[in-house]
Design goal:
Arc Repressor Mutant, subunit A, Tetracycline Repressor, domain 2, elongated, disordered N terminus, DNA-binding
Amino acid sequence: MSTTAPGKGRGPRADAQRNRDHILDTAAQYFSEHGVSGSLDAIAKKAGVGAGTLYRHFPNREALLAALLTARDEELVKRRDAIRAEPAGAASRLEQWLDALIGWAGAFDGLPEPLRTATTTETSPLGMTCQGYITTTDEFLLAAQKEGTARAEVRGRDLFLAALATSWVRDAAMADEFSAQALKSLTRNGWAASGTADSGH
Amino acid sequence: MSTTAPGKGRGPRADAQRNRDHILDTAAQYFSEHGVSGSLDAIAKKAGVGAGTLYRHFPNREALLAALLTARDEELVKRRDAIRAEPAGAASRLEQWLDALIGWAGAFDGLPEPLRTATTTETSPLGMTCQGYITTTDEFLLAAQKEGTARAEVRGRDLFLAALATSWVRDAAMADEFSAQALKSLTRNGWAASGTADSGH
DNA sequence: AAACCATACGGAGGATGTCTCCGTTTTGTC
DNA sequence: GACAAAACGGAGACATCCTCCGTATGGTTT
């Protein structure tokens, strides 16, 4: 989880780097337990730093979230590459990628909300991240469209939002795990070209 | 917007009734302008009543929201009856009902969130409301399934959540009105039985 | 119409949370 | 070891939610 960018000018001071990493670790755990709306001051206290230190490193909740997701970036990128390398058809690959997105957006309780906001707000750290994944979604989607297994009028952005929405429905819907699955199938049938749809129970 | 239930014991005091109605009106306007997360204290002030008065009538944000939606209930119920009376096929009726739900959930910015929470939380004023509309959704869905135009494995609850999700995506997505439309089509194709799907440009 | 009391009002204030400011401390360099 | 730049910490300004309780008002009774 170190972020020591080599060669770039003079690196950050040692204590700053240490604190930053530690805050990130603490925040990851705290958000896991309390959802993304957990108190930032509480995170600072738990990490053993002053509130000022936390806010200097991460000016607001979104920045902290963005940093947290960047740390997880590697994982999702790896997944993307693994899916790319699969011998399966384009439709299956797209489906797997969307599944990965749903899982990614569900990393913390309540995460879909800021992600959706970021997706439409642009020009924010989170927005950049989302934009990148929309591009990837477009890549898989285009392949499926060329293959004839995905409707032509669908856009990557729409599927990305649909994945967020699925994750959003799953949040706090623990009483009914079916619903998330249902949304997934609904989406699956939604983008599939006629005749290739799968009831996906 | 009066809520004078006739015959039920001794009604509320006149000033209480007046305040309640006025708070409701003020809240409707305030939420329209600032979304459902607007400050409750600000609403009280704007309505010219003390905070205590607001909280006595509506113990929390959800209660206020529920009262606000109850006022709109009549409208949606009327729409439901109108759809029922239509000569169109069951699929078309289901589609129109889902459209109505999407519009309903978009009455205020940010409304889908508490609605989703209420849907999965049950036993809350909002939860009751949602439950009722899920039942209606089931009614329209069942007709479409009997007609053979809707997949058998879909449930009303899922479509209800999908409608909320669509409204959720639309929120703050003004930069891209397409997305909401896309989600709608995606869902439409998702529940339609094979062969009856419509690309819904 | 005056008195009575249940009902309702208002707004100060406790609790929690976000974020800023600035005096103090730490780090890296010379 | 001394110096300046970088970073720290936590008090406190400010916003919100919500409660508590002394005070005012409305309806009823005589």
